[in-house]
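Page 37, continued from 36.
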């Protein structure tokens, strides 16, 4: 179940917890973040290759690229036994921004985006079927837990793909990390 927890940036007690998808979308839309529920009914499992995932979701990818002018697409597909899971996790854990919107479509498993905006921290647990679009310049970080289990399609306007500008702030270290998702235990 997708979840949004909202914190004051100086306190670790949630001000609000939402699990209703339309309510989450409304709260995130109010700060300019796109959050939608899409069909993710192709038989893709974490660990699937990029080619498999892109072929399975080609029509959705083509539609998004045409509608929004994205120039590149790739896939992150990880499961708990991936040998580089710790390195992948650490790459995204510190607060950073991008010079383009960050768009992710989760087609299996779950991952946690945490956004830092206007004195608040928005922790978004994205699950299968969630599409999130984080506007350029938004401070954020991403966690996949110590036991990653997800497949996310990433779309870029920059042909170079994922390019981050780290803020140097330690705020990400002061907020909860993602607990391993229940589906990861089933995969072990």
């Amino acid at each position: 179940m997708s979840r949004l927890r909202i914190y004051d940036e100086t306190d670790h007690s949630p001000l609000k917890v939402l699990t209703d998808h339309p309510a989450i979308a409304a709260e995130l839309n109010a700060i300019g973040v796109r959050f939608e529920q899409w069909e993710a009914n192709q038989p893709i499992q974490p660990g699937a290759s990029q080619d498999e995932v892109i072929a399975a979701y080609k029509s959705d990818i083509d539609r998004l690229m045409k509608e929004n002018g994205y120039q590149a697409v790739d896939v992150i597909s990880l499961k708990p036994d991936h040998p580089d899971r710790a390195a992948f996790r650490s790459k995204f854990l510190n607060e950073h921004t991008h010079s383009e919107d960050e768009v992710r479509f989760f087609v299996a498993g779950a991952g946690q985006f945490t956004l830092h905006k206007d004195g608040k921290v928005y922790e978004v647990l994205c699950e299968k079927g969630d599409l999130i679009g984080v506007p350029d310049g938004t401070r954020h970080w991403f966690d996949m837990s110590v036991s990653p289990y997800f497949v996310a399609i990433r779309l870029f306007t920059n042909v170079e793909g994922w390019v981050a500008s780290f803020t140097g702030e330690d705020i990400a270290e002061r907020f909860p990390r993602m607990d391993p998702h229940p589906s990861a235990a089933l995969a072990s």
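The first helix runs from residue 21 to 29. Flag for discussion at group meeting. The two ends are 21 Å apart (CA to CA).
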